[in-house]
Design a protein that fits this description.
This protein has 211 residues and is an alpha+beta fold. It folds into two domains: 45 residues; 156 residues, Hotdog Thioesterase (Thiol Ester Dehydrase, Chain A), CATH 3.10.129. The chain contains three helices and eight strands, in the order H-E-E-H-E-E-E-E-E-E-H. Strands 2, 3, 4, 5, 6 and 7 form a six-stranded antiparallel beta sheet that branches. The protein has a two-stranded parallel ribbon with strand order 1-8. It starts with 6 loop residues before the first helix and ends with a helix.
Length: 211
């Protein structure tokens, strides 16, 4: 059965078909625009969830004070090197978690040096600060000084650079988490950050060679 010969009727059918086609077109157009808007919203939400605000060095500086007891000492009456390392690790961990805003675990000790002993009855002073922040890790510098409590005399005892990795729980599994970028404001902070980058490059190179 063909179209009727009446031109007016034919024109009406054509108009209705065009109107229907336009409605379908604009409906699909709205769906496309809505889909793009939702996609952009998802991207923005993802960006907001995967970026963290930078933090200054001073915001996470950590200090500790320990008193050397006989249980901390070796046969010479000075503090065990292993005990000093344990205090360094603890002080650095607090500093790393303050910067990251979450749990952080020790990844590597780098450039540990002992300069002078601390005897029983003397005081151990530890000072930790962030030197560099990478994607999911931070490097912490810990300086250790000894102190004679009666006179107040102080001297450098040890120094260490410790790397920590931030951890988050994802589906019941602990995985590396993003850490805030570090804002360096002084020449000393910028120098320490540059040196930290070099140490990181050497660490990655060693891992690649040993793999």
């Amino acid at each position: 059965m063909g179209f009727p010969d009446n031109p007016a009727h034919t024109h009406g059918v054509t108009t209705r078909m065009r109107a229907s086609t336009m409605r379908v077109y604009w409906s699909r157009r709205r769906e496309t625009v809505l889909w793009h808007e939702l996609s952009w919203y998802a991207v923005r939400m993802s960006m907001s969830l995967t970026t963290v605000a930078p933090r200054r060095v001073g915001e996470s500086i950590t200090t500790m004070t320990e008193y050397v007891l006989p249980t901390h000492a070796n046969a010479l009456g000075t503090v065990f090197g292993g005990q000093v390392l344990a205090w360094i690790d603890l002080c650095a961990a607090i500093c790393a978690q303050r910067h990251a805003g979450r749990l952080a675990v020790t990844a590597e000790f780098d450039d540990v040096s002992f300069r002078a002993p601390i005897a029983v009855g003397q005081v151990v002073l530890l000072h930790a600060k962030v030197t560099a922040a990478f994607r999911t890790s931070v490097e912490i510098l810990v300086d250790v000084h000894g102190e004679e409590p009666q006179s107040g005399r102080r001297w450098p005892c040890a120094r260490a650079f410790v790397t920590f990795v931030a951890i988050e729980d994802v589906g019941g599994e602990r995985k590396p988490a993003l850490v805030p970028p570090l804002v360096t404001e002084t020449d000393e902070e910028r120098l320490l950050c540059a040196e930290a980058m070099e140490r990181r490059t050497r660490r990655l190179s060693r891992r690649k060679c040993s793999a």
